[in-house]
Amino acid sequence: MTPPRPPSGRQRPLRYYSDSERTEGGSGSWDTLEWNKLDQTASGSSSTSFANLSCLLESERVIVEGYGVVLINTDEAGTLLVTNFRILFLSEGTRKVIPLGTIPLATIEKFNKTALKVQSNNRQSDKNPPRRLLQVTGKDMRIIVYGFRPKTKQRRSVFDALLRCTKPERVWDLYTFACGPSKFGNANPKERLLNEYFRLLGKSSVRASMDMIEDGSFTLENELWRISDLNSNYNLCQTYPFAFMVPKSISDEELLQACSFRAKCRLPVITWCQPGSGAVIARSSQPLVGLMMNMRSNFDEKLVAAFCTQLGANKGERRKLYIADARPRKNALANGAMGGGSESSSNYFQSPIVFFGIDNIHAMRESYSRLRDYLDMHGATSSDGRSSFLRHTGWTWGGGNLSSMSASVSLLGDSGWLIHIQNVLAGAAWIAARVAVESASVLVHCSDGWDRTTQLVSLACLMLDPYYRTFAGFQALVEKDWLAFGHPFSDRVGMPNISGSGNFDLPRQSSSAGSYPSSPVRQSTQSGGSQSSSSSHAQNNYSPIFTQTFLVDFMDCLLSCRFGNFLCNSEKERQQCAIAEACGCIWAYLTDLRSLATTSHVHCNPFYDPLKYDGPLLPPAASLSPTLWPQFHLRWACPEEAKAADIEVQCRAMRAKYSEMQKDKEATERRVDEISFAMESLSAELLRERRMSWSARESAKRATKEYRALTRAVQSLGCKVNFTTSDVEDAPLENNNNNNNSNPRRRDRQGNNSDVSVSISLMSEENRSENQVGRVCEALCPLRTREGVCRWPEAGCAHLGSQFVGLKTNFDAFDRLSIHESYFKSE
């Protein structure tokens, strides 16, 4: 592959220069900075200028500032701030946080001051002072190098601040205590532990409370197991939780006798039980069998035998028990010289003893150190500012020089890290298979039972129980198997605890080993926060045990000490420090993060189907060949590789887009439903309007017919009818009572008030003669004389009208009639 050419037309980045070019004055990007201006700015500024930075956390305050600092890894210039929580590196001008140069103080393993002498052939070489460098080694797989201009005294100020802040003498000096719980309050972890025990016992309906803990009423049981409060004051075992599950058939007195046979009194207890079958996963420390491997304890053997309950299908047949020793066999035998060792199968019902061959914390620490050096040497953002291509004349991550690639892979294998990971995964899968396939019980232990044992039982439970693959279940698993059962987080991560400050160091490989040649940057002149290379393993308990198992966010929160969940070495120590009341909670923080992104959040596995994987997950042996974890191992050394390798990110982005489209679809469907409902309402209203219109037309037709009939009837009487309509305002009803005329008030369909006036007038003789109805009436009327004179003139042709026209006779008119004799004369 042809190497990329340096950009033309602009200043070349530092990594494109050779060693001689990079160190000569005026030829690198270092000297493009306006140092005089930066020095003036640094001398005339105070920490108050950064007090209102938006990137500062709650209770985070700036201690020291450094201007014109160069991040050698990426050749970026900016401002370096040391706060009471972290080192902040801000880009020049924009004050944007540079993630690679920003590291929490508790995550710093060690830091060194180095000086890189400028090599120049010029006669003025004596006037070129050496570069002032500060190398910071992190526990999260990164090595950062900051460059300071000589004669500014900024490096001294930053170094002194790191000496004061990175290694607090007391646990209460950590940032999490200064910040307090804030909005991420921590509920009592003891309640959550009891709720998990209740779930395992099949009593999920019972909820734990502080009252229950105080009065000791949490000791529930089922037909096989029970919760013991024997360790409520931590007198039985100081590194065990206040409550644990044991066989129901074992009394507290027998537990007291059995604990003395196990290292640190960590007797065998139940960490998980399979619902329905009675199979369990138990954990403990190594038995104290002695140098001759001949020491026994009847109480310990009885306790372990109680895990072999009867099989449900075959009454009388005992369940098989496996004893899984996480250590290599030779290490277990070597522990016999110190009183430890491993069980004898003949003393435990011929239970098979299986050794997983997982190395101790010291081997893990050295392997982790070699892996970090390898990534720094062969990564894209190295601590010496040179890419892998320039250092090895060929890409080591994307093809190129075959011999360089082979050497790179060989060095990765020499670190041993992937072998350690494979051993842990294989051991956990073996335990899960024994429980799921054979319905057997397994007792797991190592030396003290809080490192390799914790890794194995937590991963095995994750494979067996679908509940632990949920957010709530994963929290319960970590709090039970890692926190409650005493994984020494303070010792393993190098944090201070109750007894004093943490003591740790990851020894770097020297150039004499032939594996990782040192660069000039790595030649330190003064160091802080580390031990001498002659420190014995017995005094150094730092080891990346938790790093081998859990997630990036967990690791970042753990190493930064921002929250109090992982402080101290045991539940007892956290209770003594009042961690739950004084510090923030990582679970509340992660829940808050997930609430902002729902199912598209990084904590959600887009490939996991809970309906499909609702039982044990037993991975085949071929899948237990691990590779580097890009999101953690490569995020600093090869950030582009980490992004490209993360197919989950792409899937998560697609799911986020799909989620947005689903929301748009639901909103559109709701809008369509609203429009459909409105159209149905309008259709119903239109139908009602049509019916009313048809009814109105029919009424109009009837009214027209009646009007015509009335008109004809009135006209037959020699009268004329006139209808007039006028709009009037509402008037009191009593006004109508005083009106003698017939003037009915009507309201039209639009709700307007109107008066209809009816007037009847006599027709003139001419019109009367033209009235056809009148002529018919005169011809047919029996009261007409031959002369054409009406015999009953005041009757108003009532008889004829009522007979032929349909009018009602006004009988009141008879009272007003005057009787003439001529009416009764004979013709």
From TrEMBL:
Q: Which PROSITE patterns match?
A: PPASE_MYOTUBULARIN, TYR_PHOSPHATASE_1
List the SUPFAM superfamilies hit by this protein, alphabetically: (Phosphotyrosine protein) phosphatases II (SSF52799), PH domain-like (SSF50729)
Domain named Myotubularin phosphatase: which ranges?
202-633
Region named Disordered: 1-32, 508-536, 729-753
GO CC terms for this protein? Answer: cytoplasm
Per the record's keyword annotation, is S-adenosyl-L-methionine included, yes or no?
Answer: no
Give the UniProt keywords, A-Z: Coiled coil, Lipid metabolism
Can you tell me which residues bind substrate? 360-361, 446-452
MF terms (GO), sorted A to Z? phosphatidylinositol-3,5-bisphosphate 3-phosphatase activity; phosphatidylinositol-3-phosphate phosphatase activity
Offer one Pfam family short name for this entry. Answer: Myotub-related
Coiled-coil region list: 644-671
User: Which BP terms from GO are recorded?
Assistant: phosphatidylinositol dephosphorylation
> Bias regions of kind Low complexity — which residues?
510-536
Report the active site residues. Answer: 446
EC annotation?
3.1.3.95
InterPro entries per record: GRAM, Myotubularin, Myotubularin-like_Pase_dom, PH-like_dom_sf, Prot-tyrosine_phosphatase-like, Tyr_Pase_AS
Protein family (similarity comment): Belongs to the protein-tyrosine phosphatase family. Non-receptor class myotubularin subfamily.
> What name does UniProt use for this protein?
phosphatidylinositol-3,5-bisphosphate 3-phosphatase
Gene source species? Brassica cretica
